[in-house]
Amino acid sequence: MSQPAFSVLAHPRLVVLEGLDGSGKTTLCNTLQTELGAQLVINPPRCRKAARAQADALPEAEKRAWYLESNSLAIHEAEAHLASGHWVVMDRSIASTLAFGRAHLGHPASLEVVPEGAVLPHFYLLLISEEERQRRAGSRQLAQTREERQLIDSPSFRQLVLQGYLQLRGVPLLAEGAPEDRSEEHTSELQSLTNLVCRLLLEKK
Known about the structure:
With 205 residues, this protein is an alpha/beta fold. It has helices at residues 25-36, 49-56, 60-83, 94-104, 130-139, 146-153, 155-167, 188-204, and strands at residues 14-19, 39-42, 88-91, 124-127, 170-173. Helices cover 50% and strands 11% of the residues. Helix 3 (60-83) runs antiparallel to helix 4 (94-104) and helix 4 packs across helix 7 (155-167).
């Protein structure tokens, strides 16, 4: 694997990417994994892949409990890689569980609803690309989940999910591969990561 593409980050970091289904997040995670020479952590973890379809069919409260448990397994996997000196790229985090769960209740997520003891990334990069999401949604041949259909059919639900992501410390990246103007919140580390992801976004267009 390649070494990190910039030198300002001397120590391994957890890089979390979030975004609506079809935003190109998973593809970018794979590219970023190679760019950083990182370990890739999928959330929910691969060991729970077979149970995911069944979990998605559960009543909402039970479904969220399953995802919260999966979030815990994924973050522990990420922490183990970090402790071994590896960079980690994570595809989704507890932010997704909270953003979608609260949106189903008609409210955006916020830091106040993070469960005690849960690990929320200090920051994560949120892909916002409605054009890409619609293109991918239209080209997918697999059956859509209830939430994927709801994201397509309900602009208000989609807006609640996005608002929740932002209130959970998401750093938004616009469709053009540029960060939203929130420079006062960017440390040099965050800015370097953001710049790298933006470059990768532009290269894949």
